[in-house]
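tmp note - NADH-quinone oxidoreductase subunit F
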Amino acid sequence: MTGAMASQRNSLRYRSRLMQPESERSADTHPLTWRLRDDGEVVWLDEYLGKDGYQSVRRALSEGDPQAIIAAMKDANVRGRGGAGFPAGLKWSLTLQGDDMPRGYLICNADEMEPGTFKDRLLMEQQPHLLIEGMILGAYANNSRSGYIFLRGEYVESARVLNQALQEAREARWLGNDIDGSGFDFDIVVHTGAGRYICGEETALISSLEGKRANPRAKPPFPGQSGAWGKPSVVNNVETLCNVPAVILNGADWYQALSGDRTDDGGSKLYGISGPVHRPGLWELPMGTTGREIIALAGGLRGDHKLKAWLPGGASTGFLLPEHLDLPLDFDTVGKEGSRLGTGLLTVVPENQSMVALMRNLEAFFARESCGWCTPCRDGLPWTVKLLQALEHGEGEEGDIELLDKLAADCGPGLTFCAHAPGAAMPLETALKHFRHEFEQGITQSRGPAHQDPIPVGSV
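out:
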């Protein structure tokens, strides 16, 4: 087999999968995915233009009112799809504006390293112009003249597709000087990262973009006031930016109506699922879709296993139970249950999976990815791994579980420099809450080892 053939085979094998055919998607209900092709090939510029591409940019630039874009985003209540759920319109309204302000940067966070998450990859590899269009609108609203796509280094195919699409956009004058004859100048560069999970934190991302060590920064000042190279900077996730064109083209009321009466959070969402299910993949669904509906779309668990627990949005969210399956998956509802919506991609845990082994696997990842900037994260996370390893092999001691409780509490919100350690603590805290008896089995005097190889988080 030639190298080109092998590359093509691997690209197809590991491509993020949208499970809805074109016949089930329309511009009225699926703003993120209605343009996507069933064969998974890239929607290049000519096809994108034939499907209303760049019409929102043309409208916004002809109207000449950046504040109207921010107002529409606030009215639509587009909340950040990278995991935090912070309203994008509100973030934009806090950016330094005015003719006397320095021109800043619009930065796309495409460092998709959350275990169990693969939604941004789909958008970048199959519909790059939607992201570019969203970035143009975001830049116009935020007084930016330069944009960066901070891309996970392993996303080689995404980099190839994005760079080709950027060149297409420049040649058609959707990027560069005087976009569409409006007098607005803006261009985008793809910057591939070196592979650090901490770069998902916006200030660590900015540090890395500047060529420095990827450490988070103190806030304030926030990036909207002093970000990349000291200039006002806005950092938004891929999926967040891909929502902007539809909001500008169709209006805030239309966007809000997409979720119906499921939730107060408007719009649609790329939900997905990984783990031992029959059909892992992605679906664009109304915001507020339930976990039960998503698992049903995935064909249920393999091997007729019952569901033990599930993560609603990546490894840094808290475990939910089968009794939570009918809750609408929106930011506030999931938060009230002691977890987070995160990226909205579920990871299911079957009944035969040891929670101790699973937590050891997760905490080893978080410990390895710590930047080492603050003590609870740098020293506390490796300590949790050692304790979990002992419990997994039935070699735990009295007091180990209580120490895990304390380590998790010490890594809680407000006690560390950024959200990395709280994200690592949340699944541990909820696992100890719901499945404490499994951890107790790892104490030496108890009933024996709790060892079992964990299902790889994010396996598809």
